[in-house]
C-alpha cells in the first residue's frame, strides 16, 4: 500500500487578515511514496480529501477530489476547497463552521491517477484557518486579537504555550520521541558501537592505490603498474619503470632469462648480441644509439661491458627485435599499437630509416642528442633506407604499447 509523508507541515493556511474577502482554500503539500518509502517522481495521482467534524469516524462535512502531478522529488501541492466536490453535509466549502469544534483531515490516494482510492491516513487539524473562521465574524465590531486567534485555533485552554513540543533522542535505545506523542526507534546497522572503525585510509606505494581499513586489511586496490608507463620512474626510455634487478655485464656471455626483459643504461659504441628469432641466431654488431637497447628473453650478449637492469615481462609492454637487414624486408607496426624504436641507428647512413616509403634522417654525427626515441603509430611500414644495400645488418630494438 502506498503512503503519504507530509513535507515540513501538513497544511499551510492561506490567510490574508486584511483582505475584504478571505480566500476559501487551504494549501496542502505532501510527498507521495510507495510502501518501501521510495518517492513517486513525475507521477499523475488522484487525491480524495475529506474534512470530518468531531471524530475520525464521523460523517465528512466536505469531500473533494483532485488530480495532481508530483515533481522529481515526489512532492505535490493542492488547494483544499478548490477541488471537485464529491459529497459532504455542506454544499459549499465556505459553509464549513470552523468554530464548531474539532475537525479531522482524511487523505485517500490512487497512484494510477484514477478514482480507486486507498486510505492514506487521517489526522486531526490541530488548528483551523484563521482567515476562514474570521470570515464568519462579519458582524463583529471589536475583539481582542489574542482571544480571537486562540478561539479560531480551537485552543480549549487558551494557553498559547502548552502545545509546544520538543524532540528527544536516546542514543542507548535509538528512540526518537516527541513530547506527549509518538516515538520511533532508529536502527543503525552497525555491527559494533565503535563510530571510528569504519574510517578507511588511502595508501599509494608508487605503483598501486589501496583502500585500507583501520585493522590494516586492504579492501580494494588499483594497480597502476597494469597500465603502460604505470610503474615508478616510467618514461619513453624505460616504460616499465627503473626499479628492477640492476646488472653490470663485463666479459663473457649473458643470456636474458625466460620471463625477463633487459634494459641497458650504458654501453660502448657497439654491442654484440644474438637472438634465436633474428638472423638465424648469428652474432650481430649492434649500435646502441639513440637510446640504449632493450633485449627480450632469449637474447644473448657477448662481452657486453655494459650496465642495465632486468624487470619481469608485462602484457602492456612488448619488447621487439626487428631485423630489416634484407633489402626486401619490412615491418608493419600492428594496428592499435605504437612502436618505440630505442636502438639500431648509428652515426652513419644507418642513422636513416625508411618510413612509409620515405627515407628520414633521425641521426647524424655530432647531433645524436636530438633524437631519443623514434615513435611510429600503428600501420607505419619501416624498412632499410634506400641506397643502403651495402649496409650490413640493420636490426632495431624497441617495444610496442597499446595506443
Structural overview:
- This protein has 403 residues and is mainly β.
- It has 3 domains: 3-152, Sandwich (Immunoglobulin-like), CATH 2.60.40; 198-226, no CATH class; 245-402, no CATH class.
- The chain is 3% helix and 40% strand.
- It is built from 2 helices and 30 strands.
- The chain has helices spanning 130-134, 145-152; strands spanning 3-13, 26-33, 44-53, 62-69, 75-80, 84-87, 103-110, 118-124, 167-170, 175-178, 183-185, 201-204, 208-212, 218-223, 245-249, 253-255, 260-266, 271-274, 284-286, 294-295, 300-302, 306-312, 318-323, 330-332, 337-343, 352-355, 358-361, 374-377, 381-383, 395-402.
- The strands form 8 sheets. A 5-stranded antiparallel β-sheet has the order 6-4-3-7-8, with no helix packed on it.
- A hairpin with a 2-residue loop joins β26 (352-355) and β27 (358-361).
Poorly predicted residue ranges: 1-10, 12-20, 139-154
Specify the biggest β-sheet: 5 strands, antiparallel
Please indicate the count of domains: 3
Mean pLDDT across residues: 79
In short:
The chain has 403 residues and is mainly beta.
Descriptive labels:
elongated; Immunoglobulin-like; 403 residues; 5-stranded antiparallel β-sheet; disordered N terminus; 30 strands; 4-stranded antiparallel β-sheet; mainly beta; 3 domains
Amino acid at each position: 500500500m502506498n503512503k503519504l509523508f507530509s513535507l515540513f507541515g501538513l497544511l499551510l493556511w492561506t490567510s490574508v487578515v486584511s483582505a475584504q474577502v478571505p480566500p476559501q482554500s487551504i494549501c496542502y503539500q505532501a510527498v507521495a511514496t510507495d510502501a518501501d518509502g521510495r518517492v513517486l517522481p513525475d507521477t499523475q495521482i488522484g487525491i480524495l480529501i475529506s474534512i470530518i467534524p468531531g471524530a475520525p469516524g464521523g460523517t465528512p462535512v466536505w469531500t473533494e477530489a483532485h488530480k495532481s502531478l508530483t515533481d522529481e522529488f515526489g512532492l505535490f501541492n493542492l488547494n483544499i476547497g478548490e477541488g471537485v466536490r464529491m459529497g459532504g453535509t455542506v454544499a459549499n466549502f465556505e459553509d464549513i463552521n470552523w468554530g464548531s469544534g474539532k475537525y479531522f483531515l482524511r487523505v485517500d490516494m490512487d497512484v494510477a491517477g484514477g478514482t480507486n482510492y486507498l486510505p492514506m491516513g487521517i489526522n486531526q487539524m490541530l488548528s483551523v484557518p484563521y482567515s476562514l473562521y474570521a470570515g464568519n465574524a462579519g458582524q463583529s465590531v471589536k475583539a481582542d486579537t489574542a482571544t480571537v486567534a486562540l478561539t479560531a485555533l480551537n485552543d480549549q485552554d487558551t494557553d498559547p504555550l502548552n502545545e509546544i513540543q520538543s524532540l528527544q533522542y536516546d542514543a542507548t535505545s535509538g528512540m526518537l520521541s516527541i513530547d506527549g506523542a509518538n516515538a520511533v526507534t532508529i536502527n543503525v546497522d552497525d555491527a559494533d558501537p565503535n563510530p571510528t572503525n569504519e574510517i578507511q585510509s588511502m595508501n599509494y606505494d608508487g605503483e598501486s592505490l589501496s583502500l585500507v581499513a583501520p585493522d590494516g586489511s586492504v579492501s580494494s586496490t588499483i594497480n597502476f603498474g597494469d597500465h603502460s608507463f604505470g610503474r615508478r620512474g616510467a618514461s619513453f626510455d624505460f616504460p616499465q619503470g627503473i626499479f628492477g634487478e640492476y646488472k653490470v655485464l663485463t666479459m663473457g656471455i649473458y643470456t636474458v632469462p625466460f620471463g625477463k626483459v633487459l634494459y641497458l643504461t650504458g654501453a660502448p659504441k657497439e654491442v654484440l648480441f644474438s637472438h634465436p628469432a633474428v638472423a638465424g641466431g648469428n652474432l650481430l654488431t649492434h649500435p646502441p644509439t639513440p637510446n640504449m637497447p632493450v633485449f627480450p628473453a632469449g637474447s644473448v650478449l657477448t662481452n657486453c661491458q655494459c650496465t642495465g637492469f632486468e624487470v619481469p615481462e608485462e602484457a602492456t609492454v612488448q619488447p621487439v627485435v626487428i631485423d630489416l637487414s634484407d633489402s626486401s624486408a619490412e615491418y608493419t607496426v600492428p594496428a592499435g599499437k605504437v612502436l618505440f624504436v630505442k636502438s639500431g641507428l648509428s652515426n652513419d647512413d644507418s642513422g636513416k630509416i625508411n618510413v612509409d616509403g620515405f627515407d628520414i634522417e633521425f641521426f647524424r654525427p655530432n647531433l645524436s642528442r636530438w633524437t631519443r626515441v623514434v615513435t611510429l603509430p600503428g600501420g607505419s611500414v619501416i624498412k632499410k633506407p634506400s641506397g643502403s644495400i651495402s649496409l650490413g645488418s640493420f636490426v632495431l630494438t624497441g617495444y610496442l604499447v597499446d595506443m
